[in-house]
Amino acid sequence: MSELSDLYQEVILEHNKNPRNFREITDADRTADGNNPLCGDALRVYVSMEEDKVADVAFKGSGCAISKASASMMTQMVKGKTREEAEVLFDEFQRMVTGNLDIEQEENHLGKLKIFAGVLEFPARVKCASLSWHTLYAALNNETEISTE
Ligand code: ZN
Question: What is the 50 CA–ligand 1 centroid distance (Å)?
């Protein structure tokens, strides 16, 4: 377990320092704002669709290292996916960080996102890790704002 923790820390720190897709999409088809008042994380997610595909996805905002790293990896994972595939990932991610998905035993598509299974040990951090996913889901469903409270 300590190996996973080391890897977890390393990946979080690296994405926090150098977040991927950290930019605005000025002509985005959909945007949504996500707030996690407990920690102070505030993100805006931008999505450009091409038919049913997430052609481009990006985020801006401020927050703790976990929320930022999670948003960074979320954009990497869903870019090029269909809306349905993105929503499956959202569901699997949410179940993983709340302890309702056994990532070793149950089929899933999480890949390198499995690293966030580590937040289970830190209940206060679950909302930080899932904020960008909730915000993406809101954007895909034409909602413009979400709060984790
Ligand atoms: Zn946070």
Answer: 31
Q: What domain range includes position 40?
A: 3-143
Count up the domains in the chain and report the number.
1
- Compute the distance from residue 125 Cα to the ligand 1 centre, in Å: 6
Residue 149 lies in a domain: no
Residues 40 and 4: beta-carbon distance below 8 Å:
no
β-strand pairing of 41-50 with 30-36: antiparallel
Q: Kindly list the averaged pLDDT for each block of 10 residues, start to end, along the chain of length 149.
A: 72 95 97 96 98 97 96 98 98 96 95 91 91 97 89
Q: Is residue 124 part of a domain?
A: yes
pTM for this structure? Answer: 0.94
